[in-house]
UniProtKB/TrEMBL annotation:
<keyword id="KW-0597">Phosphoprotein</keyword>
<dbReference type="InterPro" id="IPR011006">
    <property type="entry name" value="CheY-like_superfamily"/>
</dbReference>
<dbReference type="Pfam" id="PF00486">
    <property type="entry name" value="Trans_reg_C"/>
</dbReference>
<keyword id="KW-0805">Transcription regulation</keyword>
<feature type="domain" description="OmpR/PhoB-type">
    <location>
        <begin position="130"/>
        <end position="227"/>
    </location>
</feature>
<dbReference type="InterPro" id="IPR036388">
    <property type="entry name" value="WH-like_DNA-bd_sf"/>
</dbReference>
<protein>
    <submittedName>
        <fullName>Transcriptional regulatory protein TcrX</fullName>
    </submittedName>
</protein>
<feature type="domain" description="Response regulatory">
    <location>
        <begin position="9"/>
        <end position="122"/>
    </location>
</feature>
<keyword id="KW-0804">Transcription</keyword>
<dbReference type="InterPro" id="IPR001789">
    <property type="entry name" value="Sig_transdc_resp-reg_receiver"/>
</dbReference>
<dbReference type="Pfam" id="PF00072">
    <property type="entry name" value="Response_reg"/>
</dbReference>
<dbReference type="InterPro" id="IPR039420">
    <property type="entry name" value="WalR-like"/>
</dbReference>
<keyword id="KW-0902">Two-component regulatory system</keyword>
<feature type="modified residue" description="4-aspartylphosphate">
    <location>
        <position position="58"/>
    </location>
</feature>
<dbReference type="InterPro" id="IPR001867">
    <property type="entry name" value="OmpR/PhoB-type_DNA-bd"/>
</dbReference>
<keyword id="KW-0238">DNA-binding</keyword>
<feature type="DNA-binding region" description="OmpR/PhoB-type">
    <location>
        <begin position="130"/>
        <end position="227"/>
    </location>
</feature>
Amino acid sequence: MNHQLKGIKILLVDDEPNILQFLELGLQNEGFDVETAQDGFAAITVARQFQPHLAILDVMMPGMDGFEVCRMLKKTENIAVIMLTAKEEVEDRVKGLTLGADDYMVKPFSFEELLARIHARIRNHFPNLLGEVVIGPFRIDDRRKEISYDNRVLELSPTEYELLSFLVINHGLVLSKSKILDKVWGYDFGGEENIVEVYIRSLRDKLSDKEHRLIRTLRGAGYRVDLP
């Protein structure tokens, strides 16, 4: 269990009991406080009492669907929302994001990817809650802008800090150069994509990752952090 996550509250809403139970146990084991609901009406009631930081909403539910739940939650609560759907329909995704959803995932998905997206949403929405995060051998202290690896504080420039944080928080996911540039350098960055390679090389040196086992290069796709 990651004790840094204790006190971060997540509401799970899905009409499939098996999915609900799987996600509830997994997130509780990670250290989150979790409440569940099996339909939209129950979700609104639970949210008012529980005051979650983040809601994970299934789109297709009887009665009130996930879109309507998202709209109502965003109207009344300070909450991050991740939508789940069994269909990879662009229209559904656009509708959810238009209603205020912060992220979108298509079933089936890996628990590790969901966890990475939860971290990213909480960090964006409630930065003070994740002031310090422990992920494998990494300790990221966002308040001090400091990262430790195997209990050793790394000497990082501000850009190196942002890049390594982004890679580690999204560990297990392949991140393209363009996505890294958008997140770390900003969407209006006018320089060359090769700058990512330069900074990756510097991070590998500082992590003593000569064999690229920690920060892997996937040719034509991007980079992925694999935790030991």
